[in-house]
Amino acid sequence: MNIRTSALCASILAFTVSAQAADWPQWRGPNRDGVVVDQRHQLEKLPAEPKVLWKIPAGPGQSSPVIAGNKVVYMDAQGENETAHCVDATTGKEIWIVPVGAKVVFSPDYGGGPRCTPLIDGDRVYTQTGEGEFRCLALADGKTLWKFSFGADYGATWFGNKSGDAAAKETASRRQGNNGSAVIDGDRIFVPVGSPEKGTLVAFDKKTGKEIWRAGNDNTAYSSVMVGTLAGLRQVVHFTADALMGVDAGSGKILWRVPLKTGAKRHACTPLLSGDTVTVASTSIGTIRFGITKSGAEVKAEPIWTAQAVKTVIGTPTLLDKHLYTLGDGNRASLVCLNFETGAQLWAQPGFGDYTSITAVNDKLLALTSTGELLLLKANPAKYEELGRAQLCAKTWASPAYADGKIYVKDENSVAAYALVP
User: Fold this and answer.
1) How far apart are CA 10 and CA 256, in angstroms?
2) What is the pLDDT of residues 102-123, one digit of tens each?
3) SS3 (DSSP) at 17
4) Contact partners, residue 22, CB within 8 Å, separation at least 6
5) pTM of the model
6) Residue 200 carries which DSSP code?
7) Residue 61's closest CA among 409, 397, 417, 401?
8) Cβ(395)–Cβ(412) under 8 Å?
9) What SS3 state is found at 90?
10) Residues in the chain with pLDDT < 50?
């Protein structure tokens, strides 16, 4: 009986690990932290020319692809619309394509099209356009199940970066595109609407679209929403245009709020949750780790450490084995390793440009730069240790998705799948 039970437990564990490694259903992966465990594949080296499994044409946009149940969902711009696509993860064959809103337009051209990464949850997929059109679609056929508009329904009107309206200077997302990805927790989905009049953050029933609560009066920046338990309280953590805040997931009550302001409201980092701490980074404030505590009815967020020199323009730190890997170090283009407990900088490697996504796979790091070059690194706090590099795609600000030994990448012209292991 013990042998059978042990075998069953081992089977369940293997299935769980396999499922985690085979899906990348949302922004920054299974747990929204850029970390994945893949026991089936050990990335020991990077082929100079990774095998192309499939490659299909795509329109512009900085939205990242996501994967679940052997389906890849991605967004791009087609003509005057932002569109959502669903393709077979093995072949790249299109399953459906649907328009989900008007294409954002910029002057000068920073690249039109969607900014926000879709989210797959069960048999549904959630999309958000640059102008703030939010939809819940059926994963099977792309049919719209419910939708709402940031502007029409919540007064978070789209300005665009050509606007001379004084109110446009108080927001980032409504000038340059609603980048921040929503997050699901149980039966609720939390959306960064960014309306100073009708709610910074709004909770909906994920199945019906019924509003549950709204919280805050901040404009939004570019940061995606996180949810977790800190100081014993289930919280939604949001990095707005003006502050970092924690909101009670059940009631919508703002539990704590720390003002954090930068030029042009440029907060692009997704909060990193670890234990009872939240870590964020931006262009002016550097990198800061906050501790969240509760005493009676009062909840506080207080700095544990600040790495002032580690300023990040675009990107989010990745935490692995008590070390933080991020972009910054004064010139804002170096890959940096920090001691997560103290904030001390351990090393910095220059030459990474304005954006690099960092994905931890087991004890390795996959770093995709904005020039489309992929690097495989050893997650080594003692020194920078490169194991290989390859040119995967053209210029991109879309983070890749990793699943089952494969990487899925979108640039301004295509979406492609590559095998990283034989």
Assistant:
1) 42
2) 998 887 766 789 999 999 999 9
3) helix
4) 67, 403, 404
5) 0.94
6) S
7) 397
8) yes
9) coil
10) 1-20
